[in-house]
From TrEMBL:
<feature type="compositionally biased region" description="Basic and acidic residues">
    <location>
        <begin position="463"/>
        <end position="484"/>
    </location>
</feature>
<comment type="similarity">
    <text>Belongs to the AB hydrolase superfamily. AB hydrolase 4 family.</text>
</comment>
<dbReference type="GO" id="GO:0047372">
    <property type="term" value="F:monoacylglycerol lipase activity"/>
</dbReference>
<dbReference type="InterPro" id="IPR029058">
    <property type="entry name" value="AB_hydrolase_fold"/>
</dbReference>
<feature type="domain" description="AB hydrolase-1">
    <location>
        <begin position="155"/>
        <end position="399"/>
    </location>
</feature>
<dbReference type="GO" id="GO:0034338">
    <property type="term" value="F:short-chain carboxylesterase activity"/>
</dbReference>
<feature type="transmembrane region" description="Helical">
    <location>
        <begin position="542"/>
        <end position="565"/>
    </location>
</feature>
<dbReference type="InterPro" id="IPR000073">
    <property type="entry name" value="AB_hydrolase_1"/>
</dbReference>
<keyword id="KW-0472">Membrane</keyword>
<keyword id="KW-0812">Transmembrane</keyword>
<protein>
    <submittedName>
        <fullName>Embryogenesis-associated protein EMB8 isoform X1</fullName>
    </submittedName>
</protein>
<keyword id="KW-1133">Transmembrane helix</keyword>
<feature type="region of interest" description="Disordered">
    <location>
        <begin position="463"/>
        <end position="494"/>
    </location>
</feature>
<dbReference type="InterPro" id="IPR050960">
    <property type="entry name" value="AB_hydrolase_4_sf"/>
</dbReference>
<dbReference type="Pfam" id="PF00561">
    <property type="entry name" value="Abhydrolase_1"/>
</dbReference>
<feature type="transmembrane region" description="Helical">
    <location>
        <begin position="26"/>
        <end position="45"/>
    </location>
</feature>
Amino acid sequence: MDCRGLGVVSENPYVHLLNDLSLIPISHYFFAFLGFSFAFLYHFLEFHFLQDLFNGFRGSLVSLTYNPSSPIYHGVVSKCRILHARYLATPWLSSPHFQTVFLSLFGRPPAFSYRRELFTLSDGGTVALDWLLSSDVSGGVFSTNNAIPKGDTTPIVLVIPGLTSDSDAAYIKHLAFNTAKKGWNIVVSNHRGLGGISVTSDCFYNAGWTEDLRTVVSNLHDEYPNAPLFLVGLSVGANILVKYLGEDGDKVPVAGAVAICSPWDLLIGDRFIGRRLLQKIYDKALTTGLQGYAQLSKRHQPRFLRLANWEGIKKSRSIRDFDQHATCIVGKFETVDTYYRRCTSANYVGNVSVPLLCISALDDPVCTREAIPWEECRANMNIVLATTKHGGHLAFFEGLTAAGIWWVRATDEFLKILHSSQYMHVQKMVSFGTQSSLDSSIDQGPYVNIAEDGMVAAVGNEQAKENRTEDVLEQEKTHQRKTNEMVSGEQDDHMIKPEPCSAEIVQSSEQATRRQDSKPLDVITPVRRCLDRLSQQSRWSFWLLVYVAIVTSWPLVGSALQIFFRKKLRNVFPAA
C-alpha cells in the first residue's frame, strides 16, 4: 500500500534533526566548546582570572582573626602594611592548583649555597643544619670558614620544612634568600633522612615529633645566647612548630614564630585529601614522596624491614595506607586515627605563649580551611591568624612574572617589627617541682612518622627535660630591651571551649546518611542541594557561572531553537 499520499512519515525523525544541526556554523560550536571549557576551568580548577578581571585586578583583603585585647596585634601586626593590604595572585596562576603545581615544578628559587652543619642527636640520629648568613648574600666573598661569633646579636631564623621537603625546596630558598638579604641569619633544620643525610638511628620524623626541634632550638640558644631566635614552620613543619610551642608554653627560648599553611588537624586533613579527584592526586603525589623517602638510601631499607611492613609501604596508594603500614607499627599506635589525633597541633593552640603569626589560604588544595581552629586562635592573645582567599599551598605567587612569594614578604615584615618592639617572648624559669596539666597530657611514648611527614620509632622523652632549663637573667641580658610579660599572663584567664570530637562528627554524619537513605528516592533534591551549596559558597561565583553557561551556550542553543521554530511555523503556515 502506498502511504505517501496519507502523510505518513516513514523516515527516522532524528535524521532531520542531524541535518538541521549540520546547518549550524562551525564557529558556533567552537565558541560553545570554548565557553564550556572556561566554565570547567572556573568551577573545577577554581580559576579566578575572570573574577580578578571584574575586580580590576585589585586582589582581595587579608582577613585577620585575633583577640580584641591582643597586645601582639595592637603592638606588632597593626603596623604590618602587607597584612593590611590586598593580595593579588599572579593572573595566569589564578587557580590554586596552578599555583601549587607551579611551585613544585618550577618555583624560580634564587641561586646560592648553604653552609652545612651536621648535628648529632641524643639517640644517634643525624640532622643537617643548612645555614645562610647575611654576609653570604651581601656581596662579600662566600667562605665556609666564616663562623658566627659566640656573642653575635644578629637575629637567627630557624626554618622547619614541610613533608619530605628539605633546604633545596623552592619556597624555602625564597624565604632563606629574602631573610638573609635583609641582614638576618637563617638556618634550615632538615628532617631526619632528608637533605642528603642517611638515617643513622631507629627514629624517624613525623607530623607530631617535636623532640628534634626542641633539641635543635636548645642547642642554638646555648651556642648563640645573645641572638634572638625566631621559628618559621611550613606545612607539616608548621604543625610541628605549633605543637612544640603549645607543649612547652613559657619555657621555649623563642622570641617569636610564624606558621605557614599548617594542616592544623590531621584527622580532618585525612578526610579532605581523599574526598575529591584532585585531592586524591595530591594524596598520591605525597605518598610517592614518602615512598621515595623510604627508598632514598639502601641503608634505609633494612630499618624499614625490621620496624615496619615494607611490602605494605611499597603498595601504599595514599598517605593513610603509608601510615597504617609504617607509622602505627613503628610507633605502636592502635589505629591511624589515634596517631592523627595525638599529633594534631590544633589541640595545643591554647597553650602557645609566644607571639605567633599564622598564614593560610582558604583555597589551599592540600590543607583544608575546615581544619583551621578559628575560635582557639581568637581566644589566645598571642596569636594572629591571617587568611587570604587565594594562594594555593605554600605558593602565594604575586606579580606578572610570578617572581615573588607574598607570604615571604609578610613573614619578613612581621618578624622585623616584632624584633624592634617590646613584645618578643622571654623564656620563663622552669620549676622542677611542678608540671603543667598540658605536659602531663602529652603522650610519653614514642611518636611515629608520616601522615604528612615521615616515620618515627620508639624514643622516650627523658632527654627533653634536660634541654628545657634556661637562665632567665641571661636571656634578659641578651635581648637588652624591656619585655612585656603580660602577654603570657593574661591568656590564662581565657578558657577555650573544646571542639567536638572528630569521632562524634563522623558518627553524626553516618546517622544523617542513614536518615537520608530511609527516605524515598528523590531526583530533584540532590540537584537543588548542589545548587544551594554553590550559592552558599559564593553568590558572586554562582551567578557568574550561570552567566558564563548561558552566554557561551547560546550560539548553539539559539541556532537549534531557530531551526526548530522555523519547522513549526512551516507546518502551521504551509506554503501555498
